[in-house]
Amino acid sequence: MRAWQVHEFGKPSDVLRLEDVEVPTPGEGQVLVRVSAAALNFPDLLMIAGKYQVRPPLPFIPGVELTGEIAETGQRVIGPPAEGFGAFAEYALMEAAALWPVPDGMPDEQAASLFLTYQTGHVGLHRRARLQPGEVVLVHAGAGGVGSAAIQLAKAAGATVIATSGGPEKVAVCRQLGADHAIDYLAEDFVGPVKEITGGRGADVIYDPVGGDVFDRSRKCIAFEGRIVVVGFTSGRIADAPTNHALVKNYSVVGLHWGLYRTHEPTLISEVHDQLSRLYAEGAIKPLVSQTLPLGEAPQALDALRRRETIGKVVLTP
Ligand SMILES: NC(=O)c1ccc[n+]([C@@H]2O[C@H](COP(=O)([O-])OP(=O)(O)OC[C@H]3O[C@@H](n4cnc5c(N)ncnc54)[C@H](OP(=O)(O)O)[C@@H]3O)[C@@H](O)[C@H]2O)c1
C-alpha cells in the first residue's frame, strides 16, 4: 500500500516520503480499515517535527484521525489509528474498541473531520468549561479546525459567540460558521471589542488554541467567574498564567487534554460521539472542509497548515 513515512523529524515537505509498505496485519482486538479520508491536524506538524507529547519511533506513518471501511465487513467508521498515528496511508489499523459509526448520510471528507476537533470542542466547552446557554464564548483562531468546530458547538449550545481570526477572509468564514461577532485580531486588539460587545463584562468562556500573546490578552477580557480553556499553542509560545490575576478577577484557567479521556474515561468519547451524531442529524453542526486533496499532496497541505494558510479542515483521500 502507499503510505507517507517520516524517517527523520522536521518540516513536512523536507522529511515526508511516499513509500510502498506492507498492508498492516491486525493484532488482538484490532481491525484493518481501508482509509477513505484522513484529516490534517496541527498535532501532525508537531509529531512530524518531533515536538509532540507523543514522539513515535522512526520511521512512522503520520495522521491522527480518519474515516474508512472495515476491510472484513465494509462498515464505515470514524476514529484514530490504533497507535494514535498512521492515517496518511491506504490502510490503517484501528482498535475495535476505539472506532465509531459514521452518522447516516455523512460524506467521507466530513466524517474524517468529525472526530478530534469536535470531540475536543464538545469536551472543552461542556465538560471542562461547563458552558451554560446564554453565556458568551470567545473562540480564538475561529476559522481553523479546532476553532470552526468550537464556533458551531458553542452556537448549538445556545451561546453568543465572538470569534477572532487572522485576516478578512477568515473573519468572513467565522461569520458564515455562525459567529455573532468576528474580529480580525491581526488588524486590531480584540480586548476592546469584546468588552464593548459584552457591555464591559467580558466573555464567560474563552476557548484558546493559540496561546502566547492571545492568552495574555484574553485575561483582560474574561468575565467574573469566567473560564479560559487552554487548548493549544499554535502561536509557538506557552503563556504564563499569573495566579494573583486569577484571584483578583475570580476566573479559572482550565486545561484541556482531550486525549486523556481515552484512558481516564473512554465511555465519555462514545457519549460525545452520540451527541455529535445527533447534532449533525439536526443540522446544528457540519464540518467545514475547505479542501479535499489526493493523498500524494500531504506535504504541501501540511506546509500550508504550518504557514497559517488553511481554513477549516483539509482532508486527504487515497
Ligand atoms: N487540547 C487538546 O486536547 C487538543 C486537541 C486537538 C487540537 N489541539 C490543539 O489545537 C490547536 C489548533 O489545532 P488545529 O488542528 O485546529 O489547527 P488550525 O486551527 O486549523 O490551525 C492553526 C491556526 O492557529 C492560528 N495561528 C495563530 N498563530 C499561528 C502561528 N504562529 N502559526 C500557525 N498558526 C497560527 C491560525 O489561525 P489565524 O490565522 O486565524 O490566527 C491557524 O489557522 C493546536 O495547537 C492543536 O495542538 C488541542
Estimated share of beta-strand residues: 25-35%
How large is the radius of gyration?
19 Å
Number of strands: 15
Which hetero ligands occur in this complex?
NADP nicotinamide-adenine-dinucleotide phosphate
Briefly note the CATH topology name of the largest domain.
Answer: Quinone Oxidoreductase, Chain A, domain 1
- The CATH superfamily name of the largest domain is Medium-chain alcohol dehydrogenases, catalytic domain
Structure description:
Strand 12, helix 9 and strand 13 form a beta-alpha-beta unit. The mean pLDDT is 98. The termini are close together. The chain has 2 domains: 144 residues, Medium-chain alcohol dehydrogenases, catalytic domain (Quinone Oxidoreductase, Chain A, domain 1); 143 residues, NAD(P)-binding Rossmann-like Domain (Rossmann fold), CATH 3.40.50.720. With 318 residues, the protein is an alpha/beta fold. The radius of gyration is 19 Å and the shape is globular. The strands form 3 sheets. Strands 3, 4, 5, 6, 7, 14 and 15 form a 7-stranded mixed β-sheet that branches. A 6-stranded parallel β-sheet has the order 10-9-8-11-12-13, with helices on both faces. Strands 1-2 form a two-stranded antiparallel sheet. NADP nicotinamide-adenine-dinucleotide phosphate binds next to helix 2, helix 4 and helix 5.
